Cortex morphogenetic protein CmpA
Amino acid sequence: MPSWFKKQMKTAFKNKNIHQIVVLNQCWFFYRKKKIPEK
């Protein structure tokens, strides 16, 4: 997990920003799908 992503997630959880957490979660799964192709 990239450091910039971890920092954004920590900030979102600290501020209890549900919208940002949801968006980051969607971005992470999209990113993983692109990086690690499913077999």
Notes: The two ends are 21 Å apart (CA to CA). DSSP finds two helices and no strands in the chain.
